[in-house]
Amino acid sequence: MAKRKKRGDGGVSLRKDGRWEGRYVVGYDDRGLPVTKNVLAKTKSECAAKLKALADSINVPTPDQPKPGILLGDWLDFWYQSYKKPNLRPNTQMSYERRIYQHIIPALGNIQMDKLTTNIIQQFYAELKQNGRLLRAELYGEGLSDQTIRGIHTTLHAALDKAVAEKLILRNPADGCRLPSAKAREMQVLTPEEIQRLLIQAKEDGCYELLLLELSTGLRRGEICALQWNDLNLRTGELRIERQVHRVKGELVVSPPKTKASNRSVILPAPVVDVLKTYKKTIVSRWMFPSPVNADSPRDPAAVRKRLQIVLERAGCKKVRFHDLRHVFCTTCLEHGMDIKTLSTIIGHVSSSTTLNIYAHVTDEMRRTAALKIDQGIGRAEPQEEAVTAPQKPAPSTFQAHKGQRRKPGTGCISQINEHLWEGRYSPIWPDGKKHARNIYAHSAEECEKLLVEMIAEMKVEIAAEKEHLYTTRKSD
Fold first, then answer.
1. What is the C-alpha radius of gyration for the chain, rounded to an integer number of angstroms?
2. What is the pTM of this model?
3. Which of 46, 149, 344, 462 lies in disulfide reach of 41, CB 3.0 to 4.6 Å?
4. Dist. CA 226–CA 248, nearest whole Å
5. What is the per-residue pLDDT across 226-247, written as a single tens digit (0 to 9) for each?
6. DSSP class per residue in 176-226
């Protein structure tokens, strides 16, 4: 069992740049917040030695009693900026900042930490559940989801744990809180017939190669958008996953995968490689799936999500998320006999237990099938009609792709976000030469079309006024 460090001895951690960093509390400021100094080294042992030398040179006794009067808001800001933010990815920083600065501090920030109780925090969570949503409450309801509340608790609990470690409070009041149950989102899986219809329609809509590759690999949406041609060995079929695309404050950002397990290689089936060889001849970009607007940029993951919903609707398939195509791949692999460890490596899970927990329903069915086969082989039991057999190749689909009608230029576009929500978007070029997009939302396609027409008319008036203003300004100059 690993030996715990004594409080006041400081802490050592590995930074993103590969160096080790040690931090030591050297005192407290006027607000009672800790003041730290840090040391850097190439190895952990060297860093620990430097940290000890720093502690010996400072020789500041650790206070035996918690320091009263520190506001929770001051501590959260200090904890996040000093301890968490330097080691977080940009999109993870955004999640922390939303929880801390939009929810926790406005509600609890003026409470002294030594006065904070479990009951106060529990009431805070209850209020979030009832009236915690800050944006688009008319579309999604007044309260926050259970998952969001659990995330807020995780952040608050970690900050208070650090306060206990620094002897700012005696105990963590968030320890005894009762949280909403962690309900897994229902997994949607397409049937073999729906998969065929999806791919037939995808050929018509120009996204066949992307969806075929997704169904053959189970990549995350950001991973498949970040693929480049030099990631694929067309001779061996080996595909390397080394980066992902995501949005940070409205801008597309390409970054390494979040975990080491996500940095991986998969082997593509030969028919998929053949399709990609033909597809490559039509692409003039280093990106496998470039943006239709700019070939030097990867495709926007949000655009891929919207395109999938259009294809699903035209193919007559059930509404699923892009991430559910990953579930389709995993379920198919397990049904055809792939072991959990291999599948976990292919899809980039850190632990096989994660894969097992997500796909327990599939593995339960596999165990039942194995038991039936053993009973038939050893016990000579009669085969049961309902016994599950190996998956059979589905009959070819007779589905005919929907040709659709292209919208006229200048009429915007609409897409269905979920079962009860539609989005309308218009992106005209303004007098400054740039596209400025606006969105509207409605609960039906008809209402969305009506609101979109009104928004386009308003924007055209604004554009005309802006042009007139620029013309008048230039004329006066």
1. 28
2. 0.66
3. 46
4. 15
5. 999 999 999 999 999 999 998 8
6. T------PPPPP----HHHHHHHHHHHHHHT-HHHHHHHHHH---HHHHHT
Q: Is the backbone of residue 285 left (phi > 0), alpha (psi -120 to 50) or beta?
A: beta
Task: List Cα–Cα distances, 252 to 97, 300, 464, in angstroms.
Answer: 19, 7, 30
Buried b (16+ CB within 10 A) or exposed e, 450-460: ebbeebbeebe
Question: What per-residue confidence (pLDDT) applies to 431?
Answer: 85
Please give the Cα distance from 339 to 320 (Å, whole number). Answer: 26
Find out whether 266 and 214 touch, Cβ atoms under 8 Å: no
Identify the pLDDT of residue 158. Answer: 96
Question: Residues of the chain whose pLDDT is less than 70?
Answer: 1-10, 30, 32, 59-68, 184-185, 360-392, 404-406, 477
Q: What is the pLDDT of residue 365?
A: 62
Q: Which residues pair with 421 in a beta bridge?
A: 418
Residues in the chain: 477
